[in-house]
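Re: that backbone. Tokens:
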């Protein structure tokens, strides 16, 4: 029979690579000793030449330059180094998003500050006591606008309505200072005067334009911060035990095998990293939606919502409103007296005409539209570049950090020896790792930290979608929306998705289901959640009732 000779030959061929190309002479371990020492480890116990590798638990068990202790140290080192790579890549994205937020925030705050300063500079000369005796009303308005922009829980429309009401009360008293006007009379005056639009169309027009501009501006600014925070938290997720082993095998096992100069095969590297970053890749869909939503709101800010003009001319619109009131003072006063009665003449008498005069000062607004246009253009370029961050991260790490070989290289480290790498490259995301040949991935157990960040992306995208059509939303610090819920108590995606969809949005947020258990894999939506306590109680009561009827 010829089976034995062929089997013996194959056995000889299979065992040949264990000694590499050095024949019967054991190869020197000088290169791995140098590397090991450079990593900060003691060279005590490190072999001078290759030894048998039966003791290895991660690397191939051929002849090796690594002891068990060295293998363990290299594994820990590879985990630390890979996590550092992730954080470094994340910091680059964080820096981009933070810089965009800082640029827009500085521009917007400067716009608001200039409007407020222009009001303080011009109004004393224009309105005299009409302004000086009511400075707090104006200061409070700008204070409320800033608080709203900074995401405080303020109803902007109510804040603007309150400003116009307070201003009308103060100005009416000053313009009719010869009368003794009580608080009760002012309440009546406000009800009657508002019917006759004492400030003209300015309050309605400003409320419409300012609310849209502020909603868009604060959602836009917050979107950058949320994106940066998501990257920060995801970059801190620790590697699994299986991933640590795979990274060690990728990065340091070739050194143990005496192949320090052999680069990892590109496709081999991709499979390892895609397996390790399977959960991170599942961020991609919602991440892309966030980037698209930010671009959409950026177009609104520099387009229909005209933030530069609206925010930069608030002081001018207020001046226009006061002028309307002054010009129609007699008509409005007459109608108020008809509806509320004639107030008593004040014993103090009228003060000087200074409170009624209007100076010749001309208000101007310096346009910064070009600066806004450049800001938006820069932001859109960066956001477009970041859209594919999560799914291009494996190839970026392999080519720039791990220094894998070219895709065509057939003399690279394939996890066992120097040669070609035959397995196909896995797809992106957790569900596609079920057959990953390099990393054992449990697709039924998604990382809950990352699932929580997927929800944060959905929430922020929904807010931007509302801002894009001018709708206000309750704003809270998104970094705390899911905190405290625990790793296993997060809101199921199908429920949260429905909750979000009640508000108008430019798209229906895609749901990311928590996979079903018992080996059923990943389903498209988590519609089959575990029964609630109430449902179990109801079923129990029904069972008891049924038993009673059978008796």
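Recovered sequence:
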């Amino acid at each position: 029979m010829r089976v034995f000779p062929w089997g013996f030959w194959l056995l000889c061929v299979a065992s040949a690579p264990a000694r590499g190309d050095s024949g019967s002479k054991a190869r020197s371990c000088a290169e791995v000793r140098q590397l090991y020492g450079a990593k900060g480890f003691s060279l005590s116990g490190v072999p001078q030449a290759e030894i048998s590798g039966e003791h290895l638990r991660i690397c191939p068990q051929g002849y090796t330059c690594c002891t068990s202790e060295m293998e363990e140290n290299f594994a820990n080192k590879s985990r630390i180094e890979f996590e550092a790579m992730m954080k470094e890549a994340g910091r680059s994205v964080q820096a981009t998003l933070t810089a965009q937020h800082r640029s827009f925030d500085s521009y917007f705050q400067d716009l608001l500050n200039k409007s407020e300063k222009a009001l303080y500079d011009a109004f004393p000369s224009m309105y005299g006591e009409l302004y000086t005796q009511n400075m707090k009303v104006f200061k409070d308005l700008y204070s409320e606008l800033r608080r709203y922009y900074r995401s405080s829980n303020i109803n902007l429309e109510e804040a603007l309505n309150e400003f116009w009401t307070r201003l009308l009360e103060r100005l009416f008293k000053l313009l009719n200072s010869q009368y003794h006007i009580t608080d009760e009379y002012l309440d009546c005056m406000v009800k009657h005067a508002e019917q006759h639009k004492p400030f003209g169309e300015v309050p309605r027009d400003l409320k419409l334009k300012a609310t849209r501009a502020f909603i868009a501006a604060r959602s836009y600014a917050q979107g950058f911060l949320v994106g940066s925070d998501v990257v920060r938290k995801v970059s801190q997720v620790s590697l699994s035990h299986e991933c640590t082993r795979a990274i060690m095998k990728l990065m340091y096992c070739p050194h143990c095998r005496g192949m320090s100069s052999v680069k990892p095969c590109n496709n081999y590297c991709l499979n390892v990293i895609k397996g390790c970053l399977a959960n991170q890749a599942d961020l991609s869909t919602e991440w892309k939606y966030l980037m698209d939503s930010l671009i959409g709101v950026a177009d609104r800010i520099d387009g229909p919502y005209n933030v530069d003009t609206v925010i930069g001319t608030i002081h001018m619109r207020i001046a226009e409103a006061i002028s309307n009131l002054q010009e129609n003072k007699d008509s409005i006063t007459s109608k108020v007296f008809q509806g509320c009665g004639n107030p008593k003449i004040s014993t103090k008498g009228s003060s000087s005409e200074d409170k009624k005069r209007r100076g010749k000062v001309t208000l101007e607004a310096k346009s910064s539209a070009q600066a806004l246009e450049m800001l938006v253009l820069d932001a859109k370029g960066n956001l477009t570049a970041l859209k594919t961050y999560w799914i291009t991260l494996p190839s970026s790490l392999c080519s720039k950090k791990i220094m894998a070989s070219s895709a065509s290289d057939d003399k690279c480290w394939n996890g066992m020896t120097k040669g070609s790498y035959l397995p196909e490259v896995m797809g992106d995301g957790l569900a596609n790792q079920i057959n990953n040949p390099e990393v054992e991935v449990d697709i039924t157990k998604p990382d809950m930290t990352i699932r929580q960040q997927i929800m944060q992306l959905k929430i922020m995208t929904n807010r931007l979608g509302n801002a894009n059509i001018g709708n206000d939303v309750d704003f809270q610090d998104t970094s705390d929306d899911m905190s405290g819920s625990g790793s296993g108590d997060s809101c199921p995606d199908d429920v949260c998705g429905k909750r979000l969809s009640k508000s108008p949005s430019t798209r229906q947020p895609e749901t990311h289901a928590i996979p079903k258990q018992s080996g059923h894999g990943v389903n498209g939506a988590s519609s089959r959640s575990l029964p609630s306590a109430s449902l179990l109680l109801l079923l129990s009561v029904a069972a008891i009732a049924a038993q009673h009827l059978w008796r």
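The longest strand covers residues 179-180. The chain is about 60% helix and 0% strand.
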